Amino acid sequence: MTDFKLDERLEADTHLVCELENCSLRLLDDTRWPWLVLVPRIAGAEEWHVLTKGQRIMIDDEVARVASALKEMTGCQKINIASIGNMVRQLHIHVVARNEGDANWPGPVWGFGTREPYDVDSATTFIESFKSAFS
Amino acid sequence: MTDFKLDERLEADTHLVCELENCSLRLLDDTRWPWLVLVPRIAGAEEWHVLTKGQRIMIDDEVARVASALKEMTGCQKINIASIGNMVRQLHIHVVARNEGDANWPGPVWGFGTREPYDVDSATTFIESFKSAFS
Q1: A8-106+115-134 domain in CATH 3.30.390.30?
Q2: pLDDT tens digit string along A82-135?
């Protein structure tokens, strides 16, 4: 794992929440939806299905824990989980809280409109609130 | 699992490929992308993160095997995997083969345009070709 380096676009578009055992957990810088991204620290990984079974189990545990906490924190109606990577190939898993009437509901969050960034205070507030639910 | 019944919309929008140990594997009836859907036969399941760890491991094994075979069959550039469920709440996992220049690339397949159904022969051909890669 020594060669892992976070993709520059992922770094630019997100705020670090915390480092989990296997993934860098990041807040997507878009206030339209509560949107977290897990980036496994595995150099060169692009596709979920080429990970080893052990890697998938460990990373999926983190995905499920993050999804549970995001659901608890937001009280959202639906969690969306996805590994897409058409634009940024470095493997990353989206976990998004969705509600009826949110931007583009019931359509997907990806590729819709323009990001609406957090200001520093509101990103910090989100992250602290998420960490409370996560712990 | 005795109470599981496939959602009517999923049934109407897909062709059965085969029954796996844990999931019904189905071809989405849209020729724009090679697009498979796994529906875990778990009554009432809606969210990935509320499954037990054992359920997630078994189902994810099937997802990864399906993704590998779809990649092998199509030679696609990217696999997209997602559990969304904003419209159909019954838990289902999308596995889609994507290529530069396909419909809505690099945007998502969900919510884009209108389905272009298979004719019976071409659906059968796809399914047989997939099964060869899967076995």
Answers
A1: no
A2: 999 999 999 999 999 999 999 999 999 999 999 999 999 999 999 999 999 999
Sheet harboring A35-40: ordered strands across?
A14-19, A23-28, A35-40, A93-98, A78-83, B78-83, B93-98, B35-40, B23-28, B14-19
* pLDDT (tens digit per residue) in A20-55: 999 999 999 999 999 999 999 999 999 999 999 999
- The whole-angstrom separation of Cα B13 and Cα B25 is 13
B79, A49: Cβ pair inside 8 Å? yes
Establish if B104 touches chain A: CB-CB under 8 angstroms: yes
ipTM value, please give it: 0.97
B104, A83: Cβ pair inside 8 Å?
no
Distance CA A88, CA A10 (A): 8
Q: Write out chain A residues lying below 8 Å of B85, CB-based.
A: 78, 80
Could you give the 3-state DSSP secondary structure of residue B4?
coil
Q: Give the gap in angstroms from C-alpha A39 to the nearest C-alpha of chain B.
A: 15
Angle at alpha carbon of residue A56, lines to A54 and A61, rounded to 5° = 100
Classify domain B8-107+115-134 at the CATH topology level: HIT family, subunit A (3.30.428)
